[in-house]
Amino acid sequence: MPKKSSHRPSPSDPAALPDAFAGWFAARGWVPRPHQLALLSAARAGRSALLVAPTGAGKTLAGFLPTLVELAGEEGKGGLHTLYISPLKALAVDIARNLEAPVAEIGLEQRIRIETRTGDTPSHKRSRQVARPPHILLTTPEQLALLVAHREAAALFRGLKRVVLDELHALVTSKRGDLLSLGLARLHRLAPGLATTGLSATVREPDALRRYLVPQVPAPALADLITVQGGARADLHMLETGRTLPLAGHTAWQSMPAVYDLIRRHKLVLVFVNTRLQAEYTFQELWNLNDDGLPIALHHGSLDATQRRRVEAAMAAGVLRAVVCTATLDLGIDWGDVDLVINIGAPKGASRIMQRIGRANHRMDEPSKAYLVPANRFEMLECRAALDAVEEAAQDTPDPRIGALDVLAQHVLGMACAGPFSDDNLYDEVRAASPYADLTRDDFLLVLDYVATGGYALRAYERFAKILRGPDGLWRVRDARTAQQYRMNVGTIIESTTVKVRLARRNRTKPGSVLPAGGRVLGEIEEDFAETLTVGDTFLFAGEILRFEGLHEDEALVTRGPPGTDPAIPSYAGSKFPLSTFLAARVRALIADPFEWDRLPAQVAEYLVQQRRRSVLPGPRDLLVETFPRANRHYLACFPFEGRLAHQTLGMLLTRRLERAGMRPLGFAANDYGLAVFGTRDLSERIGREPGFLDALFAQDMLGDDLEEWLDESAMIKRTFRQCAVIAGLIERRHPGQRKTGRQVTISTDLIYDVLRKHQPGHLLLRAARQDAATGLLDVARLGMMLARIQGRIIHKALDRVSPLAVNVMLEIGRERVYGEGADEILAEAEAALLGEALA
Amino acid sequence: MMGQTGGRPAPERKDDTVALPLKLEKTHKTPGVTLAGETLALDLSGGVWLPEHRTLVVSDLHLEKGSAFAARSGQFLPPYDTRETLACLHEAVARLDPARVVCLGDSFHDAQGPSRLDVADRALIAALQDGRDWIWISGNHDRAVQDGIGGRFADTLTIGGLTLRHEPLAKPEPGEVAGHFHPVGKVAMRGRAVRRRCFVLDATRLVMPAFGSLTGGLNVRDKAFDELFPGGFTAHLIGDGRVFAISRTMLTRD
């Protein structure tokens, strides 16, 4: 690996910097950090390595240093040397820009060509990049998939020395990570001397990432691990406003004046929220309080890209005082000098909150300053648990994934586009990718068959096969059109269908009507939502109250709402991320231990005291089930603390079982902490009369037939199936801006699902959808762990009225929509009535 | 407008064989409606039964839609749509024993559909036609299909006071029975939404739901239906156990 060069240090010191680099560090008054040298040393030994470091540790420079040193020593050699993969295209572009300075200062700008390649790169430049590649190419997982499927891929990557994977902890948790792992496996095959460098924030299990970086064939292997300890401890607090928080709701309106005050006292504040709608609401509230006219901006995924870029540029230029944002700013780029992070609502996970806190003050040795702002009393518990976790630097990043079959199908077609392959070789190559290390040969052949002809037992499509096996035993892509189709459908991110929101101009000649064209695009909203709007409806979007004027072609036309309009916030989804198992366990432990309560705000402690008086507080491993009557209905409430998704699944299954037991359930409601099922029959009486009723109700066997039956008909599995069908290329992706031309153009995946389930229930895509459901939307895996945990540990309380703990979940019932500013008042009213009843 | 979920009540099937169900004991409540003096029974299968003429009308079978996609676009939809559709048709035929079956256009998804039929499916069609008058009305998808698949071919057909054609005329025509639009209706109550295929009816005309298993639907709140039924309509939604008559005001958009 190491090249002969005059800069080459003595072999006895593999971490020594060449003079030009040592001089560059010295000139800036810097000393190379140990982990930067450790990576250099690993690179010189040709080894792959994972660098785990907190923000501000100089990870990026560490990642590129070996490449720059090697390229500095090479005289005029061409060819692609290093590939850098980032989860965000904006990050790739930003890193390229940040590399230019050191490269110029070390005097390498004539020698090292650095380029980016994203979806925005013009096609002539992309072709040139393949024919005459730069030394360093910065790109995204999707672009890598397209590159390895290119017919020139072998030539392009033959001399590749290094792949740098940035924010690896974030990449590996999704199907994008599966796709990337397969691309990496191909790179390892094309460039046998290839070494990888993973850059990651602190994670729970570094070994999973170490496996991800190196081929697992012929034998399981681990990349080297370089860990940077600590950094300064975060200066983290829960925001105490002295006001009594409600028992439910996610808007945190009580805390807005305090949040605004914090913004006034800092230079640049990032205000994180969990959903786009919370972002809109928070922005609106802050704007109402903004008597000082502070420059506050809004940043979330539905906003028009150019608008987002403007906000980012303004942050970097230092002209903003605060940005209200969602996960869109979780990762990556340093946009200016953030001196405070505020997280509104529940933290949901310890690692997530640490990542967000790290956005403040990107220097490792100084503490990041952050406030957690709970929106209700339960969130106070969750915030307390998160504070403890951060204090201990405990992590709750998810488990490594099992590679998805739909992603593999996409990749197999891509590999056929690259050139002929034998199934033996490709099978070995795929298993080199750690998510697919345990893939059986049978499953691989099923995927191959699926790609070729759809994988149907009825062999109807042989003559249309997309990949064909020649007499030489090699598989080839059918034709150029199929390859084109692959390129159009690559990637694993399935956007929900959206329509553009365009500001319309009023028609002067015809008052009350608007002209369809001319205004600017504000962003996009989900098509489902757009179609529920009727002319005259108002909603919050892009920080403004907009009036819906109608759908024109594929755009929603809007005008600005008159001042004082009460906007209708649609289908308030609450929190997008489910509570992590780890934080949930901590919340349960907090509740169970009264000695911990003095660390909680008084109003929460008081609330728990009330709960203990009226009902009982469950132990950390117990499940409390309460039954009580209320307003001619009978309720069953339980508190597993396993997150909304697992609770929704549990709610569906309990409802089915209660139905079968003749208890006539009418419905249920769930949130992150618990769920309540309601019906017309007396549950307390039945449980009292029939010992073992509850144990049977919560028995683990509900994950058998009941789950299967329900799963197969649930809307959620159909949504999951649609994603698998698009990723696997069963149906084509709808591209933004692509015009709908009639009702026969798209084919309903729900109908496909129904037909397939009936005629071939074992089909590959149905399996893929079920696998997704188990870990994703339905969180069956987590529900299973919970059911195992509570066996024999169910504590039942028959009450004559709702308990303090149950109020929180009861308030979810019937909450389909929350309306504008008046909404929380209405909720507060409902809550006050319920609470009065509970504490009477 | 694009969400094309059309809940289709699946016929009872206990095994995975191709054997067709013959569940005659199940009571099919079929509300009788009157159009141009004729009695029409709106069948749970999605067909219309004319008892006085012993005629079964089904619309928009879209047979071989799956293979049409495979041939044309490389999207390999499950190749079971034809068999599924024919199984439903067989169920209705076995139950009602019609003297005449009218397929109201778009019986095949494209002109090459018949040539792609599986041998077993072709035999199934022949068996269904056996001993019956079978009429293929031409539709916009299958106008070019004119022979080779048994039965007779026509553009329109008059039965008593009824005129059967694929695409409804722009102007209301008394006694017209048509298809083409694949109507579905959606009812949302108490946080739950149900979206089903439906018959759309006023005093003068009837638009039938699509019978095919992979056919999507157009919500009856689309303006196309306002133009066809300027005076409003009643939608008869196909439920799991019977057909429900629902007023336009109770129906929501997608």
UniProtKB/TrEMBL annotation, chain A:
Record key words, sorted: ATP-binding, DNA damage, DNA repair, DNA-binding, Helicase, Hydrolase, Isomerase, Ligase, Nucleotide-binding
Residue span, Helicase C-terminal domain: 255-401
Domain Helicase ATP-binding: 40-221
Gene3D superfamilies: P-loop containing nucleotide triphosphate hydrolases
GO MF terms, alphabetically ordered: ATP binding; ATP hydrolysis activity; DNA binding; helicase activity; ligase activity
SUPFAM superfamilies: P-loop containing nucleoside triphosphate hydrolases
GO biological process: DNA repair
InterPro entries: ATP-dep_Helicase, DEAD/DEAH_box_helicase_dom, DEXH_lig_assoc, Helicase_ATP-bd, Helicase_C-like, Lhr-like, Lhr-like_DEAD/DEAH_assoc, Lhr_WH_dom
One Pfam family recorded for the sequence: DEAD
Homology family: Belongs to the Lhr helicase family. Lhr-Core subfamily.
Protein name (Swiss-Prot/TrEMBL): Ligase-associated DNA damage response DEXH box helicase
Organism: Methylobacterium terricola
